[in-house]
Structure formats: structure tokens, C-alpha cells
Amino acid sequence: MEYPVSHQTILVIDFGGQYNQLIARRVRECGVYCEIKPYTTPLETLRAMNPIGFIFTGGPNSVYEEGSPRVDPALFTLGIPVLGICYGCQLMAHTLGGQVTEAQDDAAREYGKTKTYYDTNCRLFRGLPAEGVSWMSHGDYMARVPEGFALTARSDACPNVAIADESRGFYGVQYHPEVNHTEHGMTMIRNFLYDVCGALGDWTMNDYMKTSIEAIRAKVGEGKVLLALSGGVDSSVAAALLAEAVGNQLTCVFVDHGLMRKDEGDEVEAAFRPWDVNFVRVNAEERFLTKLAGVSEPEQKRKIIGEEFIRVFEEEGKKIGQVDYLVQGTIYPDVVESGVGDAAVIKSHHNVGGLPDYVDFKEIIEPLRLLFKDEVRQLGRELGLPEYLVTRQPFPGPGLAIRVIGDITKEKLNILREADAIFRDEIARAGEDRNLNQYFAVLTNLRSVGVMGDGRTYDYALALRGVTTSDFMTAGWARIPYDVLDKISVRIVNEVPCINRVLYDITSKPPATVEFE
Q: Which residues contact 335 (CB under 8 A, 6 or more apart)?
């Protein structure tokens, strides 16, 4: 189901950059709607979306190589402003008659934090100090910039860190303004949106809520709707939105697949029973564990869980009567990470890349598909959801199936539940839950030798993961105090059978993802 977008739109053209979602998130933080589109999207499709501006992402390729990602050169004749970032900057220069070459010496290659000097007369840099730190990541060099372009920023090593043709609204930067390491990067993006593209800042969750409710009512009519309710933030907000739109035409089905955290199934049921919606809990642990028996590969786990979810919903729909629509809490990062166009699949989300080819519903409705996580939380507040639901830390749809590394058994799940509950309990007792955006335990497939009670053990190693983030597209590992980690480790090893070693993951995203699988 497509939701009408009546807002001004920026199109982020993706060339395979690792920060494509982050760029889009930064644009929306400025109150401007945007979508990510692969570079292969036909020009007519892009034009039909009536964008007020384009942003070209970075990417791993070199523009002078045969087969490197390109855009239709006619895009530059549309009279629409363009901001090129890193590869996007070099592509614009290459397409418009400049020359991009491999850097001939180490000085021309720039990586990491770099002192940069700005021409503050350029609209992109208005209101900025004349110098600051930018985050560089490029090994190619613009040996000649296109005719009509001026040099608007430089570093000690590179004279053309930024270029601009202000008469046409074309800007290129060789660094990444979207990352926090670049000082005043948000101001640069805001300047492009408002001073160059003429943005009005008309993207708000209150407006999105009203538009979505109208679209859902128009689509559903008198039909019946089945919602896949996990109890997490996304599905809870989707449930509230659908309840507002279609009322008792909605049935929320909570599938307890046996992959939830300790006592979580009961907590979900208690939270949603008082709602004025039809609520059904399906206890399907044995069914899911049978399907997952012997499966170790994480993508296969996700696809099995995705298909089995759908089959359960189909069966429950038949019990209710003719159900026309299935609702899922899919959000925008799910879609992007599952692969958009030629973009790499980071991991298939069970509700996107894990869906079976055939689904026995008239249509799947995904009312949050255009939203990032923090936008979903704000929408929940607009709908009047309690804060404890809105701020609940994310829990993956496949549940503990992707937090048990390797094959899944009921015994392993029970071990992980108990350890994870201790971890969460001690984090809350220490008040660290206010400092962490997500934290959980992972049962690794590694066994190691230990000594307990003067005897040799050969048991599992448990990994703990805690991250801090503003958007879940990038994340840093959380600096949990040592004394808290010590207490957690002692409790887990003493209270949970079959664990004799506790590890703490200190890897950020990227290069890792938040989840292990």
C-alpha cells in the first residue's frame, strides 16, 4: 500500500554508500521529507516524484572505472539543485566535464578527521566558522573541476574539498557532512535544504498521522484487518494507528513463537488486553522450533520465521472470517537493510526479505514503512501511547532465534532467557538503562574450558551487547561501568547452568551491526 506524500521531497540517490540511511535521517531531522532511491531508478520516475533537490551519496567505486555507477546526465538539466557527497561529488564533476583521477600521492588521499577551511560566502557554508573539522574518506582526486564551478572549501592537502556552481544550485563535498565527526555538518545540510532548495519544513509526525489514517480508511473500507503484533515499538504504534483508522475492524494477533525474552509473552498480553481491539494470542512455540530444528544459517532462520509467521496469520484470519488485509510494523531501515534496487542486503528482515512468495491476503499494509525508528516513537506519542511502550528498546522480529548463534534448541533458549534477564535486571538496578539504547545477551556457539567447584567444565560462552545511538543506523558500544559488568558476570555464571564465560562486545556499528545475526 502506498501512502500519499503531499510534502516537499528530497531524493537521496544511493551509489552504495555506507551512510545512505544516515543522510536520509539527517534530512528528516531538518523537517524535510526524503526517500532513498537506487541510482538505477529511471529519470522519468525521479522527475515524477517532483523533488525539490537531489543528494548523491558516497560509494565504494571510482567514477573513471568502466561500469561504475552513473546517473542519466539529463538529471543535471532539470533545474533541480544537487548536493554530491564524496563519490557523489566526484560523479557530478566527472559527468559535467571535470576530471577525476586516482590520487597520485598520499597527501591527496584523505581519511578521517581533517581540518578544513570554508568559503563562508558560499550558501552551503553560510553561518559557519571559517574553519572546522570534516570527516574525509576518499582516495580519488578531482584533477580538474567542471567549467562554472568554484572552489569553496580546502584542506592543507587538497585545494578542492568542496566545489559549487551556485547559479545552477550544484554543490559537491569530498567529506561526509552527515556524520557526527564533521563539525557543523547538520548546518551544511540545512543550508542546502532551506537556502538552496527552498524547503518549507513541512514534514511532521502529526501531519503524517492524519494523512495515514485517511489513506488506511480509504484503502480498507469495510474490510477486516489482521495485525501482526509483537509488543515492540513498531507493531504497537502500527496497532494504535490502525485502531484509530478502522476500530473494531482490526484484530491484533500476537504469535508467541517461543523465541521471546523471559516472561515477555505474558507481559505483551497484559499490556494489550485492556485495549479496545480484538486481541488473540497464539502459542506456537513447538511449531516454530520444529521448523527451525537443525538450522544454523541466520538468513535461513529469518526466512523460516517470516514464512511461518505468515502461515499462522493466514490460519488465524480464516478463524475470524474473511480477512482482507495483513498489517506489519515494517519501518524504513528494515526496507533499506533488506536491499533496495542494487543496494547490498545487510540482512533480510523477517517481515521484508523473509516473506514467502505467496501470501493469502488481499494486500499487506505497512503504515510505518516510510519512517525511521525515532519517527515511529514520535508518531506513537502523537497517537497517545504510554511512554513505556514508545521508549521500549528494540527487539528483533525473529526474537532470540538470532541471539542463539548456530542451531536452536529449547534448552539453549532457556539458558539465554535466564542470562538475558539477569543482564537487564542489573542494568536497571544500576540506572544504566537510561544511558543505553539497546542491550541484550547472545548465546554464542563457542564452548570453552572452565573451573567451577574444583571441577572442570566445558560450557557456553555468553556475549553481552550494549550500544548507544540516536538513530540505530550507526551505534557506539556502551561504556558500562566495570563494577556493573562484574556483578552481571558473577550472577550469570553462578545462577545460569551451562555458562562458564561472559564476554562483552566492544564493536561499534559500523563495522558490526547491532545484532549478531
A: 349, 352, 369
Look up 498 and say whether it is catalytic: no
Nearest to 28 by CA among 383, 373, 382: 373
Residues whose CB is less than 8 angstroms from the CB of residue 274 and which lie 6 or more positions away in sequence, other chains included: none
What pLDDT was estimated at residue 340? Answer: 45
Residue tagged active-site, from 94, 138, 176, 349: 176
User: Does the active-site annotation cover 86?
Assistant: yes
Q: In what order do the strands lie in the sheet with 82-85?
A: 33-38, 9-14, 53-56, 82-85, 170-173, 162-165, 150-155, 110-118, 131-138
Averaged over successive runs of 10 residues, the pLDDT of the chain (517 residues) comes to 69 89 91 93 96 94 89 97 95 92 59 84 95 78 89 86 95 91 93 97 90 92 87 87 90 90 84 76 94 94 90 82 85 66 40 46 86 90 85 83 95 97 96 92 94 85 93 85 97 96 94 90
Residues in the chain: 517
Catalytic residue (one of 178, 375, 426, 517): 178
**Pick the catalytic residue: 86, 158, 197, 252?**
86
158 is catalytic: no
